[in-house]
Amino acid sequence: MAQVPLLQLSDIALGWGGAPVLDGLDLVIQPGDRLALVGRNGSGKSTLMKVMAGLVEPDRGTRACAPGVTVGYMEQDPDYTGFATLGDYAAQALDPAEHYRVELAAEGLTFDPALDPARASGGERRRAALARLLAEAPELMLLDEPTNHLDIAAITWLEDRLRETRAGFVLISHDRAFLNALARGTLWVDRGQVRRRDGPFEGFEDWRERVWEAEDTARHKLDRKIRAEARWAVEGISARRKRNQGRVRALAALRAERAAQIRRQGTAAMALEVAPASGKLVADLDRVSKAQGGRVLLRDLSLRITRGERLALMGPNGCGKTTLLRLILGQDEPDAGTVRRGTGLEVAFFDQTRAQLDGDATLWENLTGDPLMRVSGQADQVMVRGTPRHVVGYLKDFLFDESQARAPVRSLSGGEKARLLLARLMAREANLLVLDEPTNDLDIETLDLLQDLLGGFAGTVILVSHDRDFVDRVASSTLVFEGQGRARLYAGGWSDARAQGARFAQAEAEPEAQPARAAPPKSAPKSATPARRSKLSFAEKHRLETLPDEIARLEAEIGKLEGLLSDPELFTRAPEKFSKATAALAQRQAALAQAEEDWLTLAEKAEALEG
To answer: Which of the residues 219, 396, 397, 524 has an alpha carbon 20 to 30 A from that of 336?
Structure first.
C-alpha cells in the first residue's frame, strides 16, 4: 500500500520583486525521509523551508500535509521576546505535564533552562531552539543550520537523537560530517528548482558535477544548432523566403529557449595575498594560565606556533578557545606564564559574531567605511590588496549583485554576511589569518574554495571550528581542550586527533554568558572527563514513573476513537467530525509509539545503571 506523504508542495512559485526565488517547484516528503537541503547561499533554501513550515505563503501553488501530521520548524534566529527563560521558550507549545521533555533535551544539549535569553550566548540560544523542536516531537522536523554555534559534544548528541527518531526530517547544514552521518537523500535548490537524489550524502557532489556536465553538453549542442540555423538564415533566406518561414520560426524558438536558460552562478572570486613573511616564530606560550569568571580556562599551557602552521583549536563552547586567541594576539595578558609574540605579524581576523559588520549600514558603506579599505577622495573605490577597486566590482567578486550594494547588511542571509566579512578580510595583505568559526552559514561550494585558499596561503592560519570535516581538510595540527584548563596538541586534524586518543571534557557554561561560578572545593575535584552517572537524572526518573499512566491514557483514547471511526456512516453523516477523529487518532498513535519507545529506553538505562 502506498504511503501517504507527510508534506507535498505543488507548482510553488515565489519571488521578492526580482527574479523568482522558486518557480514551478514540486516536492514530496515521505514518512521516514531524512533529507539534506543544500544549495548556494541566497538560492532560497531557508525560504523554501519556511514555505514547507507554512510560515511563508507562495505566490502560486499549494502546500498540503497529511491529516494529523505536525510540522516543527527550527529557524536560524528565533525570537525570544516575551520569554523570561530559555526553558519558557522551549516549552511554550507543551502541556505542563510534558515539560520534562525540555529538561531531557536541556540535559543532553547541556544548557540551563533557567537562563535569561538576554544573557544567553548564541550557542545556548541555539540549544534552546533545538530543545523546543525535539520536545514537541513533530512527525516532520525542519532544521535550519542546527549545528551553528554548537560544539562537537552537542553536535554528536544531536546526531544520536536524529538517528534514533522515527520522525522525518529535513536539514539545512554546511557541516559535511553531520550530513554524511544523517542524510539518506538530498534536495538540491538550484536556480529556482529542486532536484532530489536518494542515497547517502557522500555521493551528492559527484552527482551534482554529472548534472552540470550534462547541462553544459546540452547547452553546447543548442548553441551549435543556433549558429548553424543562423548561418542558413543569412546565406539562403532571400531565395527561399516563402517555403521556409517555419524554419525561421524554429530558429526564433531556439533563441528564446537559450535566452530563458538561467546560467549557473559561478564561485566567488576570492583570493588571499600574503604580506611580507613574518619571523619564523609566530607565538610562544610558556606555562600560561588564565582564569575568567571564577573558572580556570588555561592551566600551564605551553605552545609554540611557527610560520606556515595551520593550527585548529577545538573544544566545548566556553572552554577558553577565544581567550587563547586573545592572548596570542596580545589583546589580553595571562595571569601566569609568558607569551612571546613574533615579529612582522600582519593579522587578518574573522570574527564569528560578525561584530565587524554594521547591520544598519549598506554593503557599500561597510566596505568604504573600513579604514583599511578606504581610498582617500574616492567614495566609490576600495583598496584591495594595494590596488583601488570599484565597490560594486569587488562585491561582484563575492557574488553580490549591484542591487545589493545599497541594501542594508541586516537584509542578508547568514551565509551572505559571512561572504561580506570574507570580502573585508581578503582585501588586506596578511601573514597571519585568525578565523573564529568561519564556516558558519557558508555553502559547501564557498567552503571548498576557502579550503583551497587556505591550503595555498603562504602565511600562518589559526582556526577555531566545530566543523570536523573542514578541520580535517585544513589543519596541520589540532589543539584539543580536554577540561580543567588542560589542552593537548595533536598532529593532523580532528580525525587524526581522535585516533591519537583526544577527548573533550564535558561541555561547560560559557563564561561570557554565565555569572561567575566559584571553583569546586579541593576535596571534590571536577574530573576532566564526565563521570558515569550512578542513577537516572530527576527528569528521567520522573518520566519513567509517569509513562505507564500516559501509555494507559493514550491506549484508552485510541480505543474510543477507533470505536467512533468504526461507524461506516460517519464520513457521510458528519465529514468534519470524521476528519477531526482521523487526525486525532493518528496523533495519539504516534504519541503512544513514542511513549512506548521512551519507556523501553529509560527502563533499559535504569537496569544498566543498577547493574
So the answer is: 524
If asked whether residues 78 and 186 sit together in one domain, one would say: yes
- Please give the C-alpha separations between residue 172 and each of 39, 44, 147, 151, 183, in angstroms, as whole numbers: 9, 11, 9, 17, 11
How many Cβ atoms are within 10 Å of 608's Cβ, its own excluded?
Answer: 8
pLDDT digits (tens, 9 = 90+) for 219-277: 767 667 667 666 666 555 555 555 455 655 665 665 665 555 555 555 556 677 677 88
The boundaries of the domain holding residue 16 are 7-201
Q: Which of 472, 499, 526 is the last residue of a domain?
A: 499
Q: Computed from CA positions of residues 139, 142, 148, 152, in that sequence, does the dihedral angle turn out positive or negative?
A: positive
Q: How is residue 181 written as a grid cell?
A: 552521518
- 317 contacts 512 by C-beta, under 8 angstroms: no
Supply the pTM of this predicted model. 0.71
Contact 170, 6 (CB under 8 A): no
* 256 plus 292 within the same structural domain: no
Amino acid at 72: G
- DSSP at 516: -
Listed residue (255, 259, 263, 258) closest to 191, CA to CA: 263
Residues 256 and 340 in one domain: no
Number of domains observed in the structure of the chain: 4
**Stated length of the chain:** 611
